[in-house]
Amino acid sequence: MKNSNISIRRARVDDIKAIYLLLKSFSDQKLLLAKTEDQLFRLIRGFRVIEDTKSKEIVACAHLDIFSEALAEVKSLAVMQDYQGQGLGAQLVLDCEDEARGMNIKKIFALTYQVAFFEKLLYREVNIKTLPEKVFKECVICPFFNECNEHALIKDI
Ligand SMILES: CC(C)(COP(=O)(O)OP(=O)(O)OC[C@H]1O[C@@H](n2cnc3c(N)ncnc32)[C@H](O)[C@@H]1OP(=O)(O)O)[C@@H](O)C(=O)NCCC(=O)NCCS
After folding, report:
1. Which domain holds residue 53?
2. In this structure, which residue's CA is closest to atom 21 in ligand 1?
3. Secondary structure of residue 155 in the 3-state scheme
4. Under a CB-based contact definition with an 8 Å cutoff, are residues 101 and 70 in contact?
5. The pLDDT of residue 2
């Protein structure tokens, strides 16, 4: 990471408001799915955040969600605009991969518009149909199911 004032750590419940607002800023642009604060309380154990240690602000976050013995997903990946391009997004994805690897999970994927970003991290694009765990558990109940143009990218870890 190029900025020495930032540190990555597991999320805490007192980060939820900041995570909510960070995700909202991008879900308003339809780049991410919105999460309510109630949902975030249920999901918080899978979140990691990056904090600006000088301003104490949460500037980035990501969520690792586990689908099966073999498969996990990087979700809710967001880096505040002013902090983009400093390696924070990559750091969060690698942190999710480390946690998944530590749990003996073999593959990790993302559904995203940021194809080039994930390709740089050695993810490869696949047809969403190759991820039935995702499609049948989540995509079918997503309000954007019929208009979803996101790309599925996967990596062996
Ligand atoms: C996508 C996002 C997470 C990237 O975070 P970031 O901190 O800016 O990315 P990084 O600085 O870690 O970039 C890592 C590498 O990917 C490249 N990269 C980043 N965003 C890119 C993009 N949109 N297109 C192409 N390359 C990109 C960087 O240039 C960098 O390359 P380098 O290693 O050769 O220097 C961030 O732009 C973001 O939060 N976007 C809005 C929300 C969103 O779309 N989230 C993804 C949902 S899955």
Report:
1. 6-156
2. 117
3. strand
4. no
5. 63
